[in-house]
Amino acid sequence: MTCFREKRKKSHFMIVPLPAQGHLIPMSDMGFLLAKRGVQVSLVITRANADRIRPIIEHAKESNISFEVVELSFPNEKFGLPAGCESIDHITDMGLFRGFFDALYSLNKPLETFIESLERPPDCMITDMCNAWTAPVARKFGIPRVIFQGPSCFYISTDYNLVQHKVYDKVINENEYVTVPDFPIKLQVTKAQTPGFLNNPGFEDFRKKCLEEEMTADGMVINSFLELEWPFIENYKRLMGKKVWTVGPFCLYNKDDEMKMGRGNKEAVDKSHSVLKWLDGRNAASVLYINFGSIAVTRPQQLMEIGSGLEASNRPFIWVMKKKEITPVVEKWLADGFEERTKDRGLIIVGWAPQMVILSHPAVGGFMTHCGWNLLLEAITMGVPTITWPRFADQFVNENLVVDVLGIGVSLGEKEPNIGIDDVIKVKSDDIRKAVDALMDGGIQADERRQRSKDFSEKAKKAVEEGGSSYVNLTDFIHYFTEARSELVLAHGQ
Ligand code: UDP
Fold first, then answer.
1. Taking every annotated instance into account, which residue ranges of this chain make up the domain Tudor (predicted)?
2. pLDDT digit string (tens) for 152-167?
């Protein structure tokens, strides 16, 4: 274990993310934010994850904020994992999932060793919803523990209600629609679309622990903001009967250009400059950006079908493909004409894209995405309307929020989960073209959708400004745990 830190004088919050890009990124953002608000922050991550964001860590050090990274070594070998497999997106074989979680859950001892090395335990531990292993550690040292919930309140209260009311116990056909009980609106989902996190065979023990430890937490902190989904935030607070702080959107805290470029993976820094140059030459709101996040895989047949849809739409686009998606078939298809035919208006990025650099550019006018909560919220924050194509986890319910409740998305109509195993076409090129036209064309509906997106963007920015809802919530959050420490000190006369 390596640890860089200075002597502690202020409130000290420890952050323990799940090693997955969609969790690590917002939790690191939150760490920077807390540090900027005067808290001393320790971000506990494994070495390979720290390496991905090394330039940002260095940048934070230079910025004179109290932000330290505590690097734990991940016991890959002991749990049969390949070297360097330290994040969910590193897992290439589903058979390794269990070993990955076993390895993660064995980090309790190194974390205890780190806490023992401190003058006094941190004032608060912010830990991911999937990190139930941190709860006994927090209890051992008397540290208040807050759960970071990755998705929207819209999703987490849906999930909570489905579990509490045992709705799926009565379901025989997993594609049958059921109504979510005790919810502010009529929402219908299928079990296949919304099974709940870690609800897979072989993961029963992890899921049980996570659900139990959620109930023992001192509160929840969420990457969302009041003006976006207040009825669902209120509903979630009522259901949990605990403190719930919505303090997002976290992506807005990353104002520095270098931090934006290297967000999530240092490999995006170099790409940022050429992407910016390419975007600078385009008309306002003319470019469609396509990115399906860090985990969802698009298989060759579907990938080439997307290409046909983009060609037919005849619009400028930036399309992000994962390295593992570039199979020999795809490579040949790209070289055999697609790249040539679209060279004047298409930019393909292979690997990690500088998402915030792209979304915040005025030339970007639409975003096709799998509806991961972070990407969606980033698009909302930047005022970019979306084409939605959910694959799994919280994504179908997120689509519902964006398309049916907020009115800022066009759905591609996918109803069944797809974890990227079968090489089949689920969405046809013509449906892609139609959705792109609907989103990017003028016309009353498209204009209204774009206007609503801009309105939410304004509200997001106001929420994090001094006096805004998320700003005020964050102040309350910091005070709540700082005062808890003072009471503890008084009680123990330290
Ligand atoms: N991301 C990025 N570049 C990429 C892919 C993803 O910066 O090429 C970031 C994205 O901005 C978001 C996170 O990775 O912050 C993905 O989180 P999300 O929950 O949206 O999706 P997931 O990857 O977990 O499916």
1. 244-313
2. 999 999 999 999 999 9
Joined tokens for residue 121 = 């335990």
Q: For 238-279, how does the pLDDT look when each residue is reduced to its tens digit (9 = 90+)?
A: 999 999 999 999 999 877 777 888 888 888 888 999 999 999
pLDDT tens by residue, 180-237: 999 999 999 999 999 888 888 888 899 999 999 999 999 999 999 999 999 999 999 9
Q: Is 359 helix (H, G, I), strand (E, B) or coil?
A: helix
* Rounded-to-integer distance, Cα 389 and Cα 436, Å: 12
CA-only gyration radius of the chain, Å: 22
Question: In degrees rounded to 5, what are phi and psi of residue 150?
Answer: -65, -45
For residue 188, give the nearest of 143, 231, 163, 158 by alpha carbon: 158
The protein residue with its alpha carbon nearest to ligand 1, atom 16, reads 22
Q: How far apart are CA 427 and CA 438, in angstroms?
A: 16
* Distances in whole angstroms, Cα of residue 249 to Cα of each of 4, 7, 162: 28, 31, 26
3-class DSSP state for residue 246? strand
Are 166 and 181 in contact by the 8 Å Cβ rule? The answer is no
The C-alpha atoms of residue 39 and residue 31 are separated, in whole angstroms, by: 9
223 lines ligand 1 (CB under 6 A): no
SS (H, E, C) 423-437: CCCCCCHHHHHHHHH
Atom of ligand 1 lying closest to residue 351 CA: 8
- CB of 264 closer than 6 A to ligand 1? yes
In terms of Cβ atoms closer than 10 Å to its own Cβ (0-12, 13-18, 19+), residue 274 is exposed
Structure-token pair, residue 215: 């109930």
Q: Reduce the DSSP state of residue 50 to 3 states and report it.
A: helix
| Model-level ipTM above the cut of 0.90 | yes
Q: Can you give the three-state secondary structure of 117-132, one letter per residue?
A: CCCCCCCEEEEECCCC
